[in-house]
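Ticket #4471: structure export looks truncated?
Reporter: QA, pipeline team
Priority: medium

Steps to reproduce: submit the single chain below to the structure queue and open the exported record.
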Amino acid sequence: MGYAMTRENMNTVFASMSDAYDIFAPKVFEGEGCFSDQDSIRYGKVSSLDEIESERKSEYSFKEVLLAVQENLFYFTEDQVTVPKITDKGILIFLRSCDLAAVKRLDQIYLNNGPEDFYYKRLREKAKFILMGCQESCSSGFCVSMGTNQADNYDLYLKWDGNHVFADCRDEALAGYFAGAQEKGLAETAEVKPDYVTENREKVTLPKNLSADTFKNPIWEEYGSRCIGCGRCNFVCPTCTCFTMQDIYYQENAKMGERRRVWASCQVDGYTDMAGGHAFRKSQGERMRFKVMHKIYDFEKRFGYPMCVGCGRCDDVCPEYISYANCVNRLAKEEQ
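Actual output as written to the record:
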């Protein structure tokens, strides 16, 4: 059911929701960009619409809400292992259509790809998603090409313009907040449909006839010669899930400590190193090949749809201006 209300009244609803939910959304962190005079847009807790950055695309995706950059899996002593508790509250996450499509990819990886991941699942079961529409395309995204520009599996859609807020609620529990607001005269019924883009400035054509020969394409070394292996493309990607494990031993007692799961990158030195000094992918070209082919070939061959959702963050963040979108288009052009 759709609702219309003022911004002030929506913030009242927000306050009520905050009692039962931790609400995460893209927000501006002043002075926390790459340079001292730059801001960063990433996810954090919010308590009102005023804190949410709705005009610009977040530099980092929503995934750090469900997959922390550094997550403690358990604490250990000589004879005991303790799994840390998580919040008792539910979780509400603001995101756009492309990122909501990324949730499907994360679920596939962590819940439907063998045994379920306990740590992801316990947060995922608490999560509900609030869709933010896109009235116009961002400069680097190619969601239309990937078919992720629209989404209908949201729990709540919110649109705000000046002092006017419109909501389409599909979740029964969240609907109670809006029904209550309507009873108090804070909201009225309205027809609400999500905004979505129908065309991007950036367009990508997925190659359809990739084969083992593609792995020998010289294009990989060309891109690899420019890559510095910083891993930023992986960290901002909403579907990259590589991690490494760290065991931390306490100085007071070397038999006590904690195990952490920490974000990692298939593009950085050391990620594929094994005992004895062997490494699966030593050159940056090999790593670039692995990343791209995993996104548009391996994952789709296994699950029936590409891993990439076309958010364009990897192109935005690369310090060497390497374009993932351009690489995919070149592969498609070579097929013709």
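Status: closed, not a bug. The export was complete when the record was re-opened. Leaving a note from the reviewer for reference: Residues 284-303 form the longest helix (20 residues).
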